[in-house]
Amino acid sequence: MTFKNSVSDYGSLSRFLHWTIALLVFIMFSTGISLNIVTTGVKTILLQVHIGCGLLTFAIVIPGIVWSFIGSKPDPPSMLKSTRLFTFKAIHLALYPGILILTISGIGILITSELGWPLTDISPDMISRNLPPVSAHGVMFKIQFILVMLHIGGVFSYQLFKEDVLHRMGINWLNRKK
Known about the structure:
- This protein has helices at 12-35, 42-70, 82-112, 132-161.
- By secondary structure, the chain is mainly α.
- The protein has a single domain (12-169), classed as Up-down Bundle (Fumarate Reductase Cytochrome B subunit).
- Helix 1 (12-35) runs antiparallel to helix 2, helix 2 (42-70) packs across helix 3 (82-112) and helix 3 (82-112) packs antiparallel against helix 4.
- The longest helix is centred in the middle third of the chain and has 31 residues, at 82-112.
- The chain is elongated, with a radius of gyration of 18 Å.
């Protein structure tokens, strides 16, 4: 596997960025949803993990965006029809800005709640739910969640019914040709 992307596969840097961001987004989705359900003392830990992962994601997404502009991209999967190709490109194009908007609105929540540093001293009770960034964060979460589900659903649908695409991101154990 090479560092750079090839015509058919993503390179090690793209794979690292993709799977790291995917893991962090999964953790943020899980902790964010849990924050609205849980009522016990674990809420503070959930919030701190959520904020920490959000800041780390932001730090990783910036190089990911830069790499997507300066690095070459593999060709789209060969059997994508025009409608599905448009959807493929649109979802990929929307995912990164969605992460940035969620991060910026999350930082906006911290700033408008007048929370200080260090972040380990933050508890959910310190955040006002009536702030505009809270509403923006909630709406953008729903949009981003739908985009992620469409992305995952599209990949697995294509993997199961068309051709092996997961190998492009380093997952070879679901290869259809075996």
